[in-house]
Amino acid sequence: MLGMRERVLLMVPETLFDVLLLTIPLCFVVLYSFWTIDLTTLEVTPDFSLGSYAAIMKPIYLTALGRSLLITVATVAGTILLGFPLAYFISQCKGKLQVVLLVLIMVPFWTSFVIRAYAWTSLLAPTGMVNQMLTFLHVIPEHTDLRYTDTAIIIGMVYSYLPEMVLPLYATLEKLDTNLFDAAADLGRSTASTFFTIAVPESKAGIAAGCLLVAIPALGEYTIPAILGGGKTLMIGNVIASEFITTGNYSRGAALATMLLAIVVMLIVVSRIISSRKKVA
Amino acid sequence: MQAIKKHWVSALIGLFVLAFLYLPIVHVIVNAFNANKHMRVWGGFTLKWFQKTLTSADFYDAFRQSLTIALCVTLLSVIVAVTAVIGIRSFSTKVRNVESTFMYIRLTLPEVILVVGIMIVISMIPGASLGPVWVVLVQSLIYSAYDMVIVQARLSTIADRYENAAYDLGATTWRVLKTVIFPLLAPSIFVGALLAFTFSLDAVVSVVFLGGPTTETLPIMIMSMIKRHVTPEVNAIGVIVMIFNMVILGITASVIGVRSTVSAVAGEAE
Q1: CB-based contact (8 Å) between B133 and chain A?
Q2: Residue B61 to residue B67: CA distance in whole angstroms
Q3: Which pLDDT does position A280 carry in this prediction?
C-alpha cells in the first residue's frame, strides 16, 4: 500500500484544480451577482445589492431563460425517444455487430462539431434535403425556412446530445439479467411487450442518469444556438456570453449565471430525492 | 442477425437514428468536393476548396494553435487524472464521495458558468489577462474528469493482488507504480488521452470566453467564417480534420486494440 505522504502528494494536482479553478470561480460568480456594479466604469465593489437581480427581471432575459428550459425539455424528450430503442437494440445484439454499432455511435464525435452544426443550416434551408423530406411528408408547409428557429436549435441539440443518452442507456440495458428476457419469451410475451414491461422499467436508473447528463449541459448550451439560431434565437448561455464579453457587465452576467446554477442544483437535488425515495420503497 | 429479425422495430428506429447522425457528415464530405458554391445541387467534382484551405496561412495558424492547446490539455489532464485515481483509492469513503462529487460537477456543469467564474478571477488578479494558458487550464479541469472515469473503471478491474505481491516481494512504491500499475493502466490512459485531445480540438466555449483577442483555434476560425457568408471551404476543413482524427484514432486502436478502445469509451458513460 502507498504511504500516507505519497497518497497526499498524489492528490495535490486534482485538489489544486478543484479549489483554484472550480470552487473559487463558482463562489465569485455567486458573490458578484450580489455585489454592486458602477454602470459607467463597470467596476464591481463588495457592497451587497440586489440591483443585478432587479435588472434581469426583464422580458429579454426571462424569455431567454424560458426558452432554454423549453429547448432542454424538448432535447431530453427527443434523445430518449430516439436513443432508447437504439440502445436497446445494441444491447440485444451480440459479438461483432454490437462493436460495429457502438463504433458507429462514437465516430461522429471525431468530426468537427462546429462543421456538423453548420451542415444542419444547409439541410434545414428551404432547398435543403431534410427540409424537402419534411415538406414531402407534409410535416411542414412548402417553402418553410427552418433555419435560425427554435426547431433548428432543438434538432441540433438532439443531434449532438444523442450519444450522451445512448451510452448510459446501453450500459444499463447491457447489465440487465438476460434470464428476465428469456423468461418473458418462454411465458409467451411478445417482443414489444417485453420491451415495455421489462426493458423500460428495469432501466429507470439509466434513463435518469442519461436525462441529467443531457439536461444539465443543455441548459447552458452556447455553441448550437450561436450557429443554428443565427444570433437571433438566443438561449441563456448566449445572453451570459454577451453580458460578459460584449457589455462587460460582470454583475448582471453573474446574476444570470447564478440563476442557471440554481436551476442545475435544483435538478440534481430533485433527482437524488426521487432515486433515494425509490430505494426506501 | 437474429437480433434484427426479433427486434425489428428497435432496429428500424436505430437505423433511422444512425442515418440522422451521419446525414450532416455525408453532407460535409459531399460538398467538400462540390464545385457548386451554394451547396444546393451537385456542380461537378472539384478540389478547389481543399486547395484554397491548404494554401491559406490562416488555416495553418489556427490549426497550429488548436494542436498546441490540445497537446498541453492532453498532458495536463492525464497527469491530474492518473495521480488522483491512484491516490484516492485508500482514502475513506467520505473523502472519496467528496472527490467523486467534484468529478461529477466537472463532467456536467454548464461550461458557461465555469468560464465566467474564471473571467471574474482573472479580472481580480493584477496583471493577469485572458489568453491560451487559461484555455488550457479550464479544458484540463473538465476533460481530466472524463479521463478519470475511464482510468478508474480500468483500475477497479485490476485486483490488488498484483500490487500486494510486488510489495511482498520487496518492491519500492515507485517500482510498483512503474512496473505494475502504469503498465496495467496504459490502455485506459491512452483512451483518456485520446478523448481529451479530440475534445480539446473541438472546444468552443472555453476559447470564446478565455482565449482573448489573439487566440484563434480552428473551431473559432470556422465560426467566424460561417457567420460572414456561405463558405464551402469549411467542408474541406471538416474533411481534413476528420482524416486527421481518424489517423489518431487508428493509431490508438492499433496500439491498444479495437475492443479495449470501444469498451473504454463506452464505459465512460457509466
Answers
A1: no
A2: 10
A3: 58
Architecture of domain A44-280 in CATH?
Answer: Orthogonal Bundle (1.10)
DSSP 3-state assignment of A44? Answer: strand
**B200 near A CB under 8 A:** no
- The more confidently predicted of residues A70 and B170 is A70
ipTM of the complex: 0.90
Domains in chain B: ranges and CATH: 47-267 (1.10.3720.10)
> Which A-chain residues 215-244 have CB contacts (< 8 A) with chain B?
216-217, 219-223, 226-227, 231, 237, 240-241, 244
3-state secondary structure of A111: coil
Within an 8 Å CB–CB cutoff, is residue B219 touching chain A? Answer: yes
Cα of B196 to nearest chain A Cα, Å: 12
B267, pLDDT greater than 60: no
Interval B12-62: pLDDT, tens: 888 999 999 999 999 999 999 999 887 777 888 999 999 999 999 999 999
Q: What is the DSSP letter of A143?
A: T
Question: Hey, where are the domains in chain A?
Answer: 44-280
Q: Where are the beta strands (DSSP E) in chain A?
A: 35-37, 44-48
Of B106, B235, B242, the CB nearest to A22: B106
The verdict on a CB contact (< 8 Å) between B39 and A122 is yes
